[in-house]
Amino acid sequence: MAKYFIDHNLLPRLAHAIRELCSYDKSSEIYALTDKFSAKAKDVDWITSLAEEGSWVIISQDRFKKSNAEKEALRQSGLTVFFLDKQWSKRAYWDKAHNLVRWWPAIMDHAERMIGGSVFKVRWNHGAVAKFEQVRL
Q1: Which range of residues forms the domain containing residue 88?
Q2: Do 59 and 107 form a contact (C-beta atoms < 8 A)?
Q3: For the chain, how many structural domains are there in total?
């Protein structure tokens, strides 16, 4: 079963909405940061904890540029990460929710094919075929 962790920079309501949309087939578990950790949890702490559990996919609007410690924790974690391109931060709540739902099947499909740590950018524009850009931290 795939486990998805949606960082707090996307509202927990979005994580819970995605969870409900995915509940029809029971193939995914979706958690908001506050479902597992304190809202004040440091990125390094929750990244390390998820890495210890293994097999998590992180969705974040944060590009993890605040500190080298965050980037290093992600590099060492072996987790798959999808971060939303900076264009997402300029969008209204409903636009963001709509687009995340549009991208979600492609995110799940891509995540299922990944082994080990990989980081991908999710662009705002979906296009006829969803394409991810692999990036380095």
Answers
A1: 2-134
A2: yes
A3: 1
Give 31's strand partners.
5
Check: CB of residue 52 under 8 Å from CB of residue 77. Answer: no
Return the CATH number at 9.
Answer: 3.40.50
CA atoms within 13 A on the CB side of 136: 0
Residue type, 68: N
Dihedral sign, CA of 69, 83, 57, 79?
A: negative
Alpha carbons 76 and 56: distance in angstroms, whole number: 13
7 and 36 in contact (C-beta within 8 Å)?
Answer: no
Mean of pLDDT values over 44-71: 88
What 3-state class would DSSP assign to 46? helix
Which pTM value belongs to this model?
0.92
